[in-house]
Write a structure and sequence with these properties.
Distance between the termini: 46 Å
Strand order of the largest sheet: 3-2-1-4-5-6-10-15-14-16
Radius of gyration: 20 Å
Low-confidence stretches: none
Largest sheet: 10 strands, mixed
Structural class: alpha/beta
Number of domains: 1
Shape: globular
Number of strands: 17
Strand content: 15-25%
Length: 328
């Protein structure tokens, strides 16, 4: 894929993923134009002031709830990365309609604008919480996934294609437990929800590069799931603060003991590749007989953080947390 010929738009472009995506695209792929679409003018100003000021970079103020603004922003765009979302589980629970307006209706607006503008590829970011959701945030991301996959039918004879990327915890992202543990170790007590708890982990850089890799190979309708390592929360806590006491506070509402990236019901339509799994559409997409690459997984297969064959060692955990680890 020749990125130098592409015009790219990223929604939620001032977030942690968005800034890393912009950085990698500008340094390594040199697109013809890269549009940062977000609703916060202060964050755009700060992003520009912090060095994200390039001749091919454009800043568009807008909200994914505003379909007309999205249509204007997508004029002449080739690729859209949809990263905008309300992501804080407690905030979504307390403000359910706001979560629905942004995560579901906003996704619908992105789809409609991309279809009308003739965008070639649209990649949406999803989450492990969309699998067997137990909170509203996960439910809205599940609905968004369904919208993006099935919208390939709406594309009909056009070139527009929609896919999703689904992955677990991003190290150090908003809501990550790592900054919390680092702060708590000053007091000598780290709070954990359950000593049995496990989580998937990948770095922000890995997440961005995986999304770029999937954009290059997407055919439409896939949900791409990376093969990423797991860790026990207790192991993470002990590496961050070896001398600290661990205080068990119990699992919070809307939280799972283990993360699930692929459940047994999705296994029937899941293919395995060396570095990822691909969940293929279960419903025919507008008479398109697509053949997706990969080997079928076993019946009843589940990809969860507790049955993962890949686990982080203590040294690997140290390497991951190093950028966030400040000496007391």
């Amino acid at each position: 894929m020749n990125w130098k010929d592409q015009v790219i738009l990223i929604t939620g472009g001032t977030g942690s993923f968005g800034k890393q995506f912009v950085d990698i695209m500008l340094r390594e792929h040199h697109p013809a134009k890269l549009i940062v679409f977000s609703r916060d003018e202060l964050k755009q100003h700060e992003m520009r002031s912090n060095g994200y000021d390039h001749p091919s970079l454009r800043y568009f103020i807008g909200d994914v709830r505003d379909g007309n603004r999205l249509q204007r922003a997508m004029h002449g765009v080739d690729i859209v990365v949809h990263a905008a979302a309300l992501k804080q589980v407690p905030a979504c629970e307390y403000n359910p309609m706001e979560a629905i307006k942004t995560n579901i209706l906003g996704s619908s607006n992105v789809i409609e604008a991309a279809l009308d503008a003739g965008v070639k590829k649209v990649m949406a970011l999803s989450t492990d919480k969309a699998v067997n959701p137990v909170n509203l945030y996960g439910a809205t991301k599940l609905a968004a996934e369904k919208l993006f996959v099935q919208s390939n039918s709406y594309a009909a004879g056009t070139l527009t294609r929609f896919s999703c990327v689904r992955y677990g915890n991003v190290v150090g992202s908003r809501g990550s437990v790592i900054p919390i543990f680092i702060q708590q170790r000053q007091n000598g007590v780290l709070t954990i929800t359950d000593p049995r708890m496990t989580r998937f982990w990948l770095t922000l850089d890995q997440g961005v590069r995986f999304v770029i890799h999937c954009i290059q190979q997407m055919r439409g309708g896939e949900v791409f799931v990376p093969k990423i390592p797991s860790t026990y929360i207790t192991d993470l806590a002990r590496v961050i603060a070896p001398q600290a006491q661990l205080e068990v506070v119990g699992i919070r509402p809307g939280e799972k003991l283990h993360e699930v990236l692929i459940n047994e019901d999705e296994a029937r339509s899941t293919l395995e590749r060396p570095d990822m799994f691909v969940v293929t559409p279960t419903v025919p997409l507008w008479q398109r007989d697509l053949q997706y690459e990969g080997q079928p997984v076993a019946d009843g297969f589940r990809y969860t953080s507790d049955n993962n064959p890949q686990w982080l060692s203590e040294d690997e955990i140290q390497a991951i947390i190093a950028p966030f680890n400040q000496s007391d």
